[in-house]
Amino acid sequence: MKLDILAFGAHPDDVELGCGGTLAKEISLGKKIGIIDLTQGELGTRGSAEIRLRESEEAKRILGASIRENLGFEDGFFVNNRENQLEIIKKIRQYKPEIVLCNAIDDRHIDHGKGSKLVSDACFLSGLRRIETLLEGTPQEAWRPKHVYHYIQWKNLQPDFVVDISNFIQNKLDAVLAYASQFYDAKSNEPTTPISDKNFLESVSYRAHDLGRLIGTDFAEGFTAERVIAVDTLTNLK
User: InterPro entries, per this entry (predicted)?
Assistant: First the structure.
């Protein structure tokens, strides 16, 4: 299966929080989307790896993604090394995405910045023919995505561009709320974390609302790019 967009997240729920609305919008336009989680989020204070796996499948269903996989890297301790790069390269070559979305380039959680650089490096290396990989015993062809973009997470990074998700904010929120173990629940007896606070859950909406305000729409998601963004004509700009 060839995918148009492949979104990576260090943990289950990263993709939904960072670019869930954008993915829902692209899917509505007929694009094939995949999600790959690097870890199972097993170090999370609330829930468990098993619970988050079930939640991630529900979020996949809500968004309408074509595939979702988990690479099982070690939460909190994975590194940007040859072994992990090759695992990501195999997935890039398998699904041949034109666009890859990945974690924020800088963030509160150390896995986000690490995951961002790991995936970005793997995207470049995936285009080198002398790096050999196999899929079920068959040699894979080199493939380099045309674009690598980074969504924004905890920190208010300055976006290089934003995507209008006004008609898809509910899809995003529903996908986020699929992770019931992680976010605000007044009835929960589990320990409080920075993302289980009611303020954080509300911030998902008001950040999207504020980014939308900047471009004259109701809601938007922001991204940073690794190169200069180009447009065909001035009339393509909102």
Answer: Bacillithiol_biosynth_BshB1 (IPR023842), GlcNAc_PI_deacetylase-related (IPR003737), LmbE-like_dom_sf (IPR024078)
How many other CB atoms sit within 10 Å of the CB of residue 26? 21
The string of pLDDT tens digits covering residues 103-137 is 999 999 999 999 999 999 999 999 999 999 999 99
Give 116's contacts (C-beta < 8 A, 6+ positions apart): 102, 103, 104, 105, 150
Burial 216-226 (b: 16+ CB within 10 A, else e): ebebbbbbbee
- Give the pLDDT confidence of 84-97 residue by residue, as tens digits: 999 999 999 999 99
Sheet with 220-225: list strands edge to edge: 67-73, 33-39, 5-9, 99-102, 147-151, 220-225, 161-164
Q: Hey, is 49 helix, strand or coil?
A: helix
What Rg do the C-alpha atoms of the chain give, in angstroms? 17
pTM metric for this prediction: 0.96
- 143 token code pair: 């493939």
